[in-house]
Amino acid sequence: MSATDDLDRVRAEAKAVTNGKHLPVRPDDMTDADWERLEAIYSEGRYEAPDEERETTSWAPVDLTSALQGDDIEPPIYLARSDGLCMFYAGRVHSLNGESESLKSWAALLGCKQAIDKGLDVLYVDYEDDASGIVTRLRALGLGAEEILEHFVYLRPDEPLRTRHDEPTVGSVDLLAVLESRRFALAVVDGVTEAMTTEGLDLLSNSDIASWMRRLPRRIARTGAAVAVIDHLPKDRTNQGRGGVGGQHKLSGLDGASYKFTLLKYFARAFGSEPVEGRAFITVEKDRPGYIRGRCLEDKLGTLALTAYPDGGVCGTIDTPTEGEATDKKVVERILAYLATYDGASKNAIETGVTGNVAAIRTALTWMTDPFQALVRVELKGCSHLHYLTDAGRAWPEPPEDEL
Hints:
alpha/beta; Arc Repressor Mutant, subunit A; 3 domains; 9-stranded mixed β-sheet; 3-stranded antiparallel β-sheet; 34% helix; globular
């Protein structure tokens, strides 16, 4: 093989690199001098451009004409609050973060229902549930079988999109076929931890997080769909940051909005004759385009309220937060101090263990469990209502010991 042939091969392989394929391999019979020369040509990019037109990379200059003409980011248009404010921006990636059972998936499915009600198509990439569980929820929310079959595309992957050598798999080809089959308005990726584990990526590595974002959420968002990824928060609440479990790039890599779900009341099926309610408080952790935070009370977006009925139906709304009624802050501080030691105390235990007028304590508890304050969440266990501190409750300034 001549040096000219080797040079042609390196040029071809350099072109392959620009298309994201692989690095050149040194031929066994190539001398050190020839390889060093060709390696320098490759590393410095001094190879001749191929005759045929190649695909432009992301390093080509961006045309700023539309930006200069005043084209701005569009307001969010999916998953509406009760007053019409929406949570998801088209063509951008968002996150729904919260502890287990904090109603994150229900919120995403509520957004799916709203989109399908408008005749739009939805993609759901599920790493945690199964088709039966998701369809059951959609039916409970009021969607019919024909609507689901026509507008809802469900994926349940258990194999990666790329190999450990970063080569595309058959799964990647199948995903591309799905994305080219129709125009999706909204896409949900349920289970970031499982998704990254399936890809063989490290949750704590910011470079792996960035790689996964490019492989799946951003790939879908490039089609114009609003993408919502559902992620878990650490179980240790003292270690909960503004993003999900793992590296900080989960938050910094988002170009849409990020929301935190704090459970106020567990949600379950209604087995008796009475409906069952569940609630989660939603706060805005990030809003890069800036349309949402300005219409919130501080960072408080509102309360997701779900009601399950004995006939199997479920209705859900995201209610706008309102200011709670003022109460005696001294009593609030005493209750918080008590729960810091006796988290999960019943109402009777709080009234007995906290110094102060019983009526004032009850008023303070009502104020503290209001979604706007969300200092305490209540769980029903048997006949008792147990009270637990939320993140906001733990962040409340500690009272002096002599006021307890």
